[in-house]
Amino acid sequence: MATQARRRRKTTTSKSKTTTPKPPANDYDDLPYNMVLHGLPGVGKTSFAANSPSPHFIIGKNERGVMKLKKRRLIDTSIPVDTVTDWQELIGKVNELADASMPHKTVVLDSATVFEKMCFQYMCDKDYGGQFTDFYLYSKGPKQAANREWTELLDALTDLADAGKNLIFIAHSAAINFQNPEGPDYTRWVPRLDTKTWEITNAWAEYVLFANFHVNVEKVGLRDKADTTSGSRWLNLQWNPAYDAKCLSECDPSIEMGSSGKEAYANFVKEVGA
């Protein structure tokens, strides 16, 4: 099932200025969204997601960020968290949360990077006899996993959206070398996923947010030196040669995250009307 699309705001022009009218009530602001949030460690991905409406977390075995935030009482300690250890358990949990009687409004998956490993392990065991050498040969296994098992997960998440749930898919970021066909190659930030997995996930997501730190770099003699007093946190909402991002609605390229997850999520809602 395809996720119901929001209607884009129309811009009207007068002789004096260009304005974007406020959309009618109940037009699209109350529709669920699906989002990929990737970023650097410690930038606030988990605290951002924890401040979404009535979140319910599904986490991989080694993703303990939300539990640490709860232990330190930096987020609501009553937020439900389910830990899954393999691919079939993840699919089962996602299907379970599609139940309309469940009270949560947002499902948070942490993280895509860990869940992809589960997906690959499941596919390798099932179709390649547990031999990862064969699985990765000519990238055949990862492509099959993305087209079959990972697509099954995205379909299950779409069912959640159709049931009225917001979706936040957290991912770790990796700096990759982009082979530029029009000029010199350069480095950019993307979710730490196989190329095919990310291609499918990027097409599925309505929002792709890249969270990072803004660091001032100053010239000191012949060398560049980072200013250790800088480091404000920003959410990037539009594609840039330096990173993958996109925004379904009209929005600024970047917004400040502020000093807390609550402020970061509020700034996101204010910007895009989610």
Keywords:
Rossmann fold, 33% helix, 274 residues, two-stranded antiparallel ribbon, 9-stranded mixed beta sheet
Structure description:
With 274 residues, this protein is an alpha/beta fold. It has one domain (31-272): Rossmann fold. Helix content is 33%, strand content 25%. The strands form three sheets. Strands 3, 4, 5, 6, 7, 8, 9, 12 and 13 form a nine-stranded mixed sheet that branches. A two-stranded antiparallel ribbon has the order 1-2. A hairpin with a 2-residue loop joins strand 10 (217-220) and strand 11 (223-226). Helix 3 runs parallel beside helix 6 and helix 4 packs across helix 6. The longest helix has 23 residues, at 140-162. It is globular, with a radius of gyration of 20 Å. The two termini are 21 Å apart.
Largest sheet: 9 strands, mixed
Beta-strand proportion: 15-25%
DSSP summary, beta strand count:
13
Helix-strand category: alpha/beta
List the helices and strands in order.
EEEHEHEHEHHHEEHEEEEEH
Count of structural domains: 1
Mean pLDDT level: 85
Short overview:
The protein is an alpha/beta fold and 274 residues long.
Blueprint (SSEs and pairs):
Layout: E1 12-13, E2 18-19, E3 34-39, H1 45-50, E4 55-60, H2 65-71, E5 81-84, H3 87-97, E6 106-110, H4 112-127, H5 132-136, H6 140-162, E7 166-178, E8 186-191, H7 195-204, E9 207-214, E10 217-220, E11 223-226, E12 232-236, E13 254-256, H8 261-272
Parallel strand pairs: 3-7, 3-9, 4-5, 4-6, 6-7
Antiparallel strand pairs: 1-2, 7-8, 9-12, 10-11, 12-13
Helix pairs in contact: 3-6, 4-6, 6-7
